[in-house]
Amino acid sequence: MSQPRLLLNVGEPAGIGPDLCVALAQHALPPLVLIGDIDCLRHRALQLGIPVALEPWDPDMPWPADRHVLAVWPVPLARPCRAGQLDPANAPAVLEGLERAVSLLQAGLADALVTGPVHKGVINDAGIPFSGHTEYLAARCGQSEVLMLLAGRGLRVALATTHLPLRDVAAAINADALERSLRLLQQGLQQDFGLAEPRIRVTGLNPHAGESGHLGREEIEVIAPVINKLQSEGWAITGPWPADTLFTPRFLEDTDAVLAMYHDQGLPVLKYHAFGEAVNITLGLPIVRTSVDHGTALELAGTGRAEIHSLLHAIQVAAEIVRQRRLNRTPEA
Hints:
Layout: E1 6-9, H1 17-23, E2 32-36, H2 38-48, E3 53-56, E4 69-74, H3 91-106, E5 112-115, H4 120-125, H5 133-140, E6 147-152, E7 155-159, H6 169-172, H7 175-193, E8 199-203, H8 218-232, E9 236-241, H9 243-246, H10 249-252, E10 257-260, H11 263-274, E11 279-283, E12 288-292, H12 309-329
Parallel strand pairs: 1-2, 1-5, 2-4, 3-4, 5-12, 7-10, 8-9, 8-10
Antiparallel strand pairs: 6-7, 6-11, 11-12
Helix pairs in contact: 1-2, 7-8
């Protein structure tokens, strides 16, 4: 079985994405192509004192095999980049890198996409509506439903809603949307992680999972009926659980994944548990996409203090998912 071919979009050039990418030269990697401004990468490597060979690459060339050279598919920035200083003029290049990556994946010329951190604010300041990688890639791939899953140190947390103001969360949680999210989670755990019968726990929305309706009725009227329906289909799924109870070792030790109702219900626990080693995975896409678990960290860019562990894990998980999907497609002898 051939090695997975990975694309890595550098992300926001003023952030730590370039720092982490040039540091990859010090690690053994599967076949990998960076997508970004090669001059920015060279300048950041010089600034950090990292010796690295960066060579231009394009899809008409053979897939890079020399582990001592980092291949770069160049996407020039509009203006020279300075570490830590955002420039809206450079935001279109970040999205151009994503566009190129998706096109290559859809053509079957690459196997997975790893994304460096982007800065949503500066992209919107450039006049480009952008709420996040997950939503952008879903639209680009023509998928109406995807699911954000973060995983690290044995804990997997998926989100029923992602980048919404808290005041809009309750209205977004309805039976149809919740069932679709759970089916994406079940399918992703089976297809990408090889779990034949994944054990899923679902949080409630309200404190104490609604306290029998005294603190909200979403658990009674929306969440529990969906769980009951899936249990009747033979799923190993339980809930709705109070989040402050569910996210404890006793409950998590026999759980393959948790579906949390909103961003800051599930992710603070995951990041406290595994920050710097966690990976963001988009379930429901026709392509494989993973990402780091952190942001652009502008204050660390160019300082040499950025930690590379999450990026290394994102690369490793992307390669593992590619291999798992290949196994799923392999006919039994």
